[in-house]
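Reviewers asked in the last cycle whether our approach scales beyond single polypeptides. To address this, we selected a multi-component target totalling 1388 residues and predicted its structure end to end. The input consisted of the following lines:
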Amino acid sequence: MNFASDNTAPIAPEILAALGAANEGPAPAYGGDELTARLNSRLEEVFERPCHFALVATGSAANGIALSLASPPYGQVLCHEASHITLEEGGAPEFYTGGAKLSGVPGAQGKLTAQGLQAAIDAHPPLPPHVMPRSVLSLTQATELGTVYTAGELAALTAWARSQVLKVHMDGARFANAVVSTGASAAELSWKAGIDLLSFGATKNGALAAELLLVFDDALAEGLAPRQKRAGHLWSKQRYLAAQMLAYLEDDLWLRLAAHANAQAQRLSKGLAALPGVTLEAPTEANEVFVHLPVPLQEALRGAGATFYPWHAPGLNPSETRVRLVTHHATSPEDVEAFLALARKSV
Amino acid sequence: MNFASDNTAPIAPEILAALGAANEGPAPAYGGDELTARLNSRLEEVFERPCHFALVATGSAANGIALSLASPPYGQVLCHEASHITLEEGGAPEFYTGGAKLSGVPGAQGKLTAQGLQAAIDAHPPLPPHVMPRSVLSLTQATELGTVYTAGELAALTAWARSQVLKVHMDGARFANAVVSTGASAAELSWKAGIDLLSFGATKNGALAAELLLVFDDALAEGLAPRQKRAGHLWSKQRYLAAQMLAYLEDDLWLRLAAHANAQAQRLSKGLAALPGVTLEAPTEANEVFVHLPVPLQEALRGAGATFYPWHAPGLNPSETRVRLVTHHATSPEDVEAFLALARKSV
Amino acid sequence: MNFASDNTAPIAPEILAALGAANEGPAPAYGGDELTARLNSRLEEVFERPCHFALVATGSAANGIALSLASPPYGQVLCHEASHITLEEGGAPEFYTGGAKLSGVPGAQGKLTAQGLQAAIDAHPPLPPHVMPRSVLSLTQATELGTVYTAGELAALTAWARSQVLKVHMDGARFANAVVSTGASAAELSWKAGIDLLSFGATKNGALAAELLLVFDDALAEGLAPRQKRAGHLWSKQRYLAAQMLAYLEDDLWLRLAAHANAQAQRLSKGLAALPGVTLEAPTEANEVFVHLPVPLQEALRGAGATFYPWHAPGLNPSETRVRLVTHHATSPEDVEAFLALARKSV
Amino acid sequence: MNFASDNTAPIAPEILAALGAANEGPAPAYGGDELTARLNSRLEEVFERPCHFALVATGSAANGIALSLASPPYGQVLCHEASHITLEEGGAPEFYTGGAKLSGVPGAQGKLTAQGLQAAIDAHPPLPPHVMPRSVLSLTQATELGTVYTAGELAALTAWARSQVLKVHMDGARFANAVVSTGASAAELSWKAGIDLLSFGATKNGALAAELLLVFDDALAEGLAPRQKRAGHLWSKQRYLAAQMLAYLEDDLWLRLAAHANAQAQRLSKGLAALPGVTLEAPTEANEVFVHLPVPLQEALRGAGATFYPWHAPGLNPSETRVRLVTHHATSPEDVEAFLALARKSV
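The resulting structure, written as structure tokens, was:
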């Protein structure tokens, strides 16, 4: 009954097997290998167009490099006030950009709107060179509150962004869960909806450590390779990143893993919402359940061995009852049912 | 007959197996896992003292973080003029330190001396705040010319460094090869010889992607975790870095792998040096052979399928005959012999 | 009737004269001059202790260098949400610190309180290394809403800061106005109240361009000279900065200039507050009046040649009636009276 | 007999007078003033075209901002190995660019050549992303050895730079002296010769503290204002920078001041070169004399009250006899003659 994080999950067997299969003899270093070439082709299929890309080991690296490509060091990056990039990446975006400012904007249920963004600008209007110019809009998909932007919502946001001459980045640490949730394609939820740069995560969804930074705007790609290298994120043995990502995309493994995780979250969410005194903080649309559990119930569950964390974030009222439950590719339905049975008994 | 780089090598079977063994159930993220705790203990044995450490995927990351701990952004890092950190890391040290200057100093056979370092300072004496203060001495072990610093040589260099109030960093991408080569212990070649920070490499010697940054000076360790995090080098699933490193250190695997690589380099070096018209650029003391091969011989070898690169570096006379041959844990003696037989035939 | 900004004011005659007087023959460059030595002595008198200091031309430079001394690049600087350092310095603090995050905290009438600061931390508690550690508290004196912290208020804030292991910086662009307003001494409003670094402004109060960064905490002063130099803020002909600052401090000129400016603001504030439909946004305690003027009254005043700006800031309700009126050392009582007469006639 | 530096000189009377004349009533801040507008027009005359420009107080600021406009943070700036930007600006270029590397290249008599630059690249050829890409060529005019590039020499260098896709920056701290020395126009020695960005100095030639950064390449100018602001180099009372620069350019004052300084250097150089045992290190073409004086002669001169410094630099053999003598706008012919008389007597 471990619902602490999708970061605690093991590697999906298919991906581990791919690492073993990649381990044959010598291979050119730094991306000159055959698996990287094959990944390039596979990405073209999945995203329905050629892409510039970089393979890195963490989401913070992908996000940091992305923002450094899209923002000058004197720019402001607009993001949700509860976004991971501004709250929990230890200042990676500031480091990578060389000093850009992340400006948190409120938005209900973890989601930004054009109206909310415009209000933030109106409250502190452009005044060059005193006010740092807004340079980037960064969206998280799925959001930090377990909700998902539809393709239509993204299109509205990116249209607004373009009206403000902003580039648009998507932190897609849980992009797979959003694709599954919306039923839209990878292309529809990214460049077709106006996204310029996508941090496409695999680690939370079954990889050992593999994230793809995809750059859809040719003009932004020039600094990609040198910025990856100077950050120490160009692996010499890149075949082992490519192998993970290829296996992830092969036979739609990524979608099957995310579908499993999402289904377990649904099961958990519905089961909990049916209990008296339990309310959801936001609709469960991906693999995270944000829910208010009475404190005695929390204690009973933890006492019985369940693992999960309380949740606080800017924009949410302080509350001791709010917790986050995360499912993943290896969450077993039995575990979820055991947790729910325990909850029903303890409530 | 691939002698291009130790970066082209596959993962050592023991390390790959350790990844599989680590893949059981959930584990706390970000270093809270059991393997990281075990690594901590194992390091204390290998280095004969407690160490601060960070696990990262690349040597450039380890070097960059290390230098950012030891140098203020307005400092100068003294290093060999042919050192990897100043020539081929894409500016990682400058990025991580926030603008420190790497000052290349000449030295025969890839090695710095206190005399040479002092001469560099005398040629451009301290003049604060106009001249950036020297802050760090960075040494490469094994060196960029395949030679190795003995414990005594290191002690002399670090004594000089201390007289100049410099911290001392060691880029130990091939530290294992140096330990095997000198017969000294890990402790004797690091903190006992006055090293403050060690980038202890495993990737070139059989890991998938794993490097350890070891900090021996407590005062320098404060920024270690936040700097690793902001650079996107803190893995969520750190157990898979710890597993590699543990397997590497278990039963002295790291020394066995390096001993194999060094032995193949010796075989190669001796075989080539015996040929007419062939001369070594520097003694072969680790797993790299820097040797002058007549151009027709190079062409014959490449024509027969051998892979290796020409070598240029500051401080070396331009020459078309100089090449680098690298061996590694998976280099087979048969491959070396085949290469030598070919060379004997073609010379 | 120009109340646009104290930045529009000319140089006080005494300071201009001092520049001329300093223009005799050669003088050692970079602070080796006699005037800098005399300034050092004079500062010791005014602040009742020895100080580390740097002379620069702008407040943004003083603030930026100060914050870079007090915060690591991965730290968070707590400041008022309407503070100049986070809103209107074009990202100078981020640039100087190498990527620190400025976190705006609300507070009534431009002033922070320990309670408000603690609430901001509680809403997003420390979680190293994910959450950037809070490193500095920066206070503006006089505040961005024309109010002034008393010595007692400062002591309470710095006591709280010390309990959180924060360094305390004061942006004293209008420090002189606060000293005059409170009647406290320079020492009482700075280091005696727990301030570690003070940006002590002269430019808004009669200098050509001169700001002093004072560092009261010895441990923070090590990087002062190299950081000033690398930012291009060490003047070769420093005598002309020292001359301004000496004249400013001589015979308490700084206090006389500020007293004049404050008195004109009082006159303006009282005169306006007596008018029907006019309300102050905050009490007038220094040389700025934040006041709500009906839009037709604003138009009448501007139509008659008066200059002043509307005022918006985070934490204030959007309003078209809010304006800022700034007085300075050269504001004539006649100008103020003319403005008030016009206002009385037009209301 | 002070020949220590042109930084020790006072303000030229015309420039000091202009400061007083600018001190009338209020003026818009941050460059909205009338003097800045007039400077814009005057620059268009002097440089025979419209220019983007920024007014700052120091040459390090002008150079730093310029290089940050022309180089990405992962770029290499090629410059003379003895150049001020790499040796004595405390790391300003590294700070402003966010980590670019300054690569020193040798060249006789302080001057770079296309041949020497090409040789430096050939010794360490491009290897992206490992080797930082060369991004900028920075030239010093007059050079650090008191010599001057002719328009033809500049054209050859910038043609080579363009063949390597490099931007070209000129550190013109002594640009006026070079214009006078060559007889070429300001335009001929800058953009007409292929210069993209010019740090045009006035401080060493009679200003209080005033340097102009001129950007001739429109594509590079976008970041000019925000980078100036974030560095704290945008003066609120910019009229006092504009006033200095206007007076400097009025009636060719800048050329008259430089002509005087150059003439005194000629007088000094010829007088010294005629003495037995005295040799010039480089031809005297601007306002600096680099000359070998026997140590006893140096001692005699210093004993008699003369001030001047020994000179060391990369690329020059260590020598105790090499000194630098600098003249400036306020150097009196009588002082020079007194020095020469003393030298003749003491030799």
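Residues 253-273 of chain D form the longest helix (21 residues). We regard this as preliminary and will revisit it once experimental data from Aim 1 are available.
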